[in-house]
Amino acid sequence: MKDDLGAMSILLVDDDEGNRYTLARRLTRDGFANFGMAGNGAEALAALRQDKFDLVLLDIMMPVLDGFGVLEAMQAEPDLARVPVIVVSANDDTANFVRAIQLGAVDYLTKPFDPVLLRARVNACLERRRLQQGLEDALSETRTMLEISPVATFFVKKGRIEWQNAMCETLLGYAATELSGRSIEHLHLNEEDYHETIQRVETTLRAGGIFRGDMHLKRRDGKVILARTAAKAISSWDLDRGVVWTMEDVTEQRADAARVAFLAHHDQLTGLPNRILLGDRLRVALAHANRNKVSCGLMFLDLDRFKSINDTLGHAIGDELLIEVSRRLKTSVRDSDTVARLGGDEFVVVLPALRSSEDAEVVAKKIRTSLAAPYELSGHPVTTSPSIGVAIYPENAADGDELLKNADAAMYDAKQGGRNAYRFYKPGMVVSK
Predict the structure, then answer these.
(1) CATH code: domain of residue 323
(2) Among 10, 138, 137, 182, CA closest to 83
(3) pTM (predicted TM-score)
(4) Do the beta carbons of residue 242 and residue 234 sit within 8 Å?
């Protein structure tokens, strides 16, 4: 016998005191040491409710409350129903045996019994009890870990929520009583979204894998969140046995990541593409021009007297002006064109797929008229105008860097010529700042 079985406690229930002590002596010789005694069914139930026992050896015929009454009472109380009972009775009537088993007894021995058989039955019963307690402890530990987990966890069986931890209420706003027994379809945006998602999930689970993916879910307050989810089936060949789900709200996290990605490629003040994104757009435009044997225009713009506006009205007004200029620029070009801000009051416009330089001139005139119109900024009337330099690929440059440099040189020539003008690049124009 294993040492841990000998340490387990046994309640001996018999109205005959001699029988109780005889049974205790026999079990002591077999290595058992922890016993409780009860002279009738009422005492047995009182002992079971007060102390923890691993096994009950129960007589049937007793005063006050017989063994059948004890079994019935034990089955009515969940904590007691888990305690195994071996009936030990002088009555060998088959009907009593059947009734005892129906009421939850795990075995039935008739007096006088063989001590070897008694030892074997008790050992087997306590071994099952030890394994049962191990499983119960493991389940309790697992449930405790899940309860305090910062990740929302569901157990779903046949499409319905069987159990959820505390974080589920934080995530979705539903108390456990509100979701228990409800279909998980209730959490999805609509029926179509639910069926499409579950189809993908079940395909992965049936293959024995762990499903991982993002999905949109509805909170109790109607707010839609983006949840990072994972799901694992208890049994891949029988999904009806249940699926464990974990969910984390990544709505803000993904929004922050999107903002970081946006700011890496866009100007923080105006939201226009910055120098990095401009380089990508320009490379695409030049590649398109090469493939389709067309031209690509690039405009370099600088605002006239911007420094004076900043110095006299302040940087806040200067920023408002830059924002309004960016807005006017975007409304002056095609959707396929790119407006970028290099910094300060310098802007660039990429004009892909031009048929001729005259197309670029039409845009330059439109921008000049738009930007030269008066501005009303926080109660201050402001006027400015653009100096615009235009370079055309492939006539004026072999690559993007050269195209940008030559457009800058043409802009400087426009500024030197009196501002509020546009110039097309010609050989010999240079930037002299």
Answers:
(1) 3.30.70.270
(2) 10
(3) 0.53
(4) yes
Residue with tokens 């807005």: 327
Q: Within 13 A of 61's CA, how many CA atoms are on the CB side? A: 10
Same domain, 398 and 318: yes
Q: Both tokens of residue 411?
A: 């802009």
Count of positions (residues) in the chain:
433
Measuring CA to CA, how many Å separate 414 from each of 2, 387, 394? 99, 6, 22
Low-confidence ranges of the chain (pLDDT < 70): 1-4, 6, 432-433
Quote the CA–CA distance of 28 and 401 in Å, as a whole number: 96
Q: Locate 100 and state its tokens.
A: 């005892």
Instruction: Please state, in angstroms and rounded to a whole number, the distance separating the CA atoms of residues 300 and 341.
Output: 10
**Tokens found for residue 39:** 């002279």
What range defines the domain where residue 32 resides?
3-145
